[in-house]
Design goal:
Layout: H1 2-17, H2 24-43, H3 47-54, H4 59-84, H5 89-107, H6 113-141, H7 147-175, H8 179-203, H9 215-218, H10 222-226, H11 229-260
Length: 264
């Protein structure tokens, strides 16, 4: 009995240490993020395998399709930032999530490269818009001193969902490496985008509007960002980390394992 009480006390202290002090809507939003990343984790390790081995695209074409998603997301991000100065981040997040759902669901049924590029553009625009709006929405729902905690929780939720999704998908593909298995993954990924949008619509309030500052008066805007050397250094370092540590590694590891190791 005494041992049980000690274990209960230890569990309570551990749980208490994880309390963030964030409001309920923020926690719900991060739960939705975990669901969203779970769906993305389902397809992330197998995108190039699906396009190359299942759909018959060359590896260079498959790589260009995946690159088109990232490039479109990057292009869509700056105008999304401008829209967020004037419109609700909740609305843009929902719209971006729906666009991503359409794009990724379309991947399940592509037969030709042009169809894959079309889906990549739609999904990329959705990713760029939703990702930017998501961060702005979180920041407007918390107090300034809670921003670090909210960012940390967002990363934990995303990594948890991503890892769990990739694990589940790995078992599914290992059990049945056929077209219908990959189609199921893409369709379910689209379902998680829609589920996330519904969670935001139903449980996340519209934050108080923040008036857009005049760029002429206080020197804000993209021009100020371009003149900030420290911030530009962070952007370059982040780009390198994403290209080498995330995009390249995540897209190359699975095909390498399937081709050159006993795992395949």
């Amino acid at each position: 009995m005494g041992g049980f009480r000690r274990m209960s006390g230890l569990a309570s202290r551990l749980i208490g240490g994880w309390r963030t002090g964030l409001a309920r809507p923020v926690l719900i939003l991060q739960t939705g993020n975990a669901l969203n990343y779970f769906g993305y984790g389902l397809i992330l390790p197998f995108e190039i395998i699906y396009l190359h081995q299942i759909r018959g695209f060359s590896t260079s074409t498959a790589g260009l399709v995946l690159g088109a998603i990232m490039a479109t997301a990057a292009i869509a991000t700056p105008p999304t930032g401008a829209l967020l100065d004037r419109h609700s981040p909740k609305a843009i997040l929902v719209a971006g999530s729906v666009a991503s759902a359409v794009g990724y669901a379309g991947f399940a049924f592509v037969d030709q490269p042009w169809q894959a590029f079309f889906c990549a553009i739609i999904g990329g625009v959705g990713n760029g818009a939703a990702g930017t709006a998501n961060r702005v929405l979180v920041f407007r729902l918390v107090r300034p001193e809670q921003r670090a905690a909210s960012v940390a929780l967002s990363r934990v939720a995303g990594n948890f969902g991503l890892g769990l999704g990739a694990t589940v998908a790995g078992f599914l593909v290992a059990a049945a490496q056929q077209l219908s298995s990959f189609q199921l993954l893409y369709v379910f990924d689209a379902v998680t985008f829609v589920g996330f949008a519904l969670i935001v619509l139903a449980a996340v309030p519209v934050p108080n509007a923040v008036p857009a500052a005049s760029t002429k008066i206080n020197g804000a805007g993209f021009g100020a960002v371009a003149r900030d050397r420290l911030f530009l250094t962070v952007i370059v370092a982040n780009t390198v980390l994403i290209v080498v540590g995330h995009t390249f590694f995540s897209n190359i590891l699975a095909p390498f394992a399937a081709t050159h190791t006993p795992v395949g």
